[in-house]
Write a structure and sequence with these properties.
The protein has nine helices and 15 strands. With 289 residues, the chain is α+β, with helices and mostly antiparallel strands. The chain folds into two domains: 2-151, Fructose-1,6-Bisphosphatase, subunit A, domain 1 (Fructose-1,6-Bisphosphatase, Chain A, domain 1); 163-288, 3-Layer(aba) Sandwich (D-Maltodextrin-Binding Protein, domain 2). The protein has an eight-stranded mixed sheet with strand order 4-3-5-6-7-8-9-10, sandwiched between helices. The longest helix is centred in the first third of the chain and has 27 residues, at 7-33. One calcium ion is lined by residues 54, 77, 95, 97-98, 100.
Length: 289
């Protein structure tokens, strides 16, 4: 049915399902944010928390998607469905709670992130902040919105006066030296840095012009699948640390902002890029052994 539709209608239909799923997970998040004592927290890996609510949100989201498209692939942080399916045209990339540490600590800055790929290309995505009831959405070719109002990246021409989101590689501290050097260079030129703790909202905020740029490494597709489309649809540039489009799906490093800010951030990254990338490569080789 869907393949005969005008692509924009098709993407809108996917987006509507993503939004429905994100809102139902959002209700769970809000309810449990207010009853934090009952949330069960455990550590997946060192400094990597997961709660029963992350898992409940993941399954609520999957149920909603599978109700409409039972054969689709869902790649989620907490669970994947039809992972082996080769005939699924769509893949839904889901972070059921982005900012789990914020959630556990009672810091009201969390989101549900759902990106939709069609034939390998991201065509729709939503990032929903249930605490503020802010819904960021994007559809390929139709721009990006916050609560249905069009959004755009800021129009800064350089790093002067900008607010840039960054993060510490807290789970991969072997990258810390290069990371600090990159952040120091950015800090020297911008007005200030932010480490907010929710990658999908960092991207959504760049799309909305609240932040002027953002860079982070060691991310997973569910952290950025929706947000990177949003930034591009809002007029920004998104690449990996070496400036390649889409390579963030391979190496998890992302840098974005308005075209000028994006270029300036790449310049802050470049002096440490070689060391950084060779560490990434070593890590990848070690994993494949
Ligand atoms: C994390 C957040 C955080 C980022 C981490 C992510 P999680 O996701 O997005 O901002 O710095 O790299 O893993 O674990 O809260 O879903
Ligand atoms: Ca995440
Ligand atoms: Ca998560």
């Amino acid at each position: 049915m869907a393949s005969r539709m005008n692509p924009n209608h098709q993407y809108r239909a996917y987006l509507n399902i993503a939004v429905k799923a994100a809102r139902s997970a959002g209700r769970l998040i809000v309810r449990n944010f207010e009853n934090a004592d009952t949330v069960q927290v455990s550590e997946k890996n060192k400094d990597d928390l997961v709660t029963n609510i992350d898992r409940e949100c993941q399954s609520t989201i999957a149920d909603t998607i599978l109700h409409f498209y039972p054969k689709d692939r869902i790649t989620g942080e907490e669970n994947s469905v039809n992972a082996e399916s080769t005939d699924a045209e769509r893949e839904w990339i889901v972070d059921p709670i982005d900012g789990t540490t914020n959630f556990v600590k009672g810091i009201p800055h969390v989101a549900v992130s759902i990106g939709v790929k069609y034939k390998g290309e991201t065509v729709a995505g939503c990032v929903y902040d249930p605490i503020l009831d802010e819904l960021f959405t994007a559809e390929k070719g139709s721009g990006a919105q916050l609560n249905d109002r069009k959004i755009h990246v800021s129009n800064r021409q350089s790093l002067n006066g900008t607010i840039i989101a960054v993060s510490y590689p807290h789970r991969k501290r072997q990258y810390l030296d290069e990371y600090r050097a990159m952040m120091n260079r950015a800090f020297d030129k911008c007005a200030d840095l932010r480490r907010m703790g929710t990658a999908s909202l960092d991207l959504a905020y760049v799309a909305a012009g609240r932040l002027d740029g953002y860079f982070e490494a060691c991310l997973y597709p569910w952290d950025f699948a929706a947000g990177e489309l949003m930034v591009r649809e809002a007029g920004g540039f998104v690449t990996d640390f070496s400036g390649k489009n889409d390579a963030y799906y391979e190496n998890g490093s992302i840098v974005c902002g308005s075209p000028h800010v994006h270029r300036a951030l790449l310049e802050c990254i470049r002096p440490d890029l070689k060391d950084f990338m060779s560490k990434l490569e070593e890590e990848r080789e070690a994993k494949s052994k």
